[in-house]
Amino acid sequence: MSLDVVFQNVSKIYKNYQALDQVSFSLMPGKTYGLIGRNGAGKTTLLSLLASFQLPSSGQINVDGKEPFENAHLMSKINFVYETDYGDEHETVESYLADAEHYRPNFDYEYAQKLVERFDLPLDKPVNEFSTGMQSALNIVLGFASRCPITIFDEVYLGMDAPNRELFYQEIIEEQSRRPRTLILSTHLVSEMDYLFDHVLILDQGQLIIDEAFDQITQHGVSITGDAKNIDIIATNLNVLNSQQLGGTKSIMVYGEIDEAKQMEAKELDLEIGPLALQDLFIHLTKKERSYEK
After folding, report:
1. Number of Cβ within a 10 Å radius of residue 192
2. Which residue among 46, 60, 268, 282 sits deepest, i.e. has the most Cβ atoms within 10 Å of its Cβ?
3. Parent domain of 143
4. Does the pTM exceed 0.90?
């Protein structure tokens, strides 16, 4: 089942604080979306609205052309996976899988068991005795195996070590190949996860400032690498976001279009031009004082 998602001028206000301000976008089935923003940007608020945990203050949210709030049929098709405190939970993994199979119409128990083995989770151990990383892995298992048409992972990897995060990333690629769904990844680990994204949404101070396909993001600027002295020459009058140097080699991230004259100059200086890193763009656009215009 494929579900389209549309946000139209959605705002959310908590007392005197505006978490979201006139946010509009659409999500297409079968794609992996990266939702990026600093702490307090409004990411979790946006996701909780999509999952029907709360209503927007204004604007409209449609899933498959219908409002999802208190729509049991649609809500069963959306799985919002987030960090959970299992400190008071004495149930085992087996019990959680059985409950998920009962409440989630598309839950794949056999797939869940394979994931449990892949993340090396004990089936008969109470989850409150799990490490933080093991609890995160349990959330990931439940999210994947739900096979919900819209699956949201909100920073679920936070307690995991690097090898298990890599398992998570591999599973995203493999599962999207096997059973494509609308997958939303809310993250701070931009440089580690950007290769997973088909499309990128960047929130800043409650506003959506980027809504673009990942391959279009690279058009916002370039990286230039080569001899440090030549890099300093080419950098004149360019908007340099970031620079790194190792020995005599230097690399800079440049925001904005590089005209033909600069490209020729870079070639003459034997410099290599490559795509702009998403993380550098993210850091630049979400500074407190930004000049970026949509």
Report:
1. 15
2. 46
3. 5-205
4. no
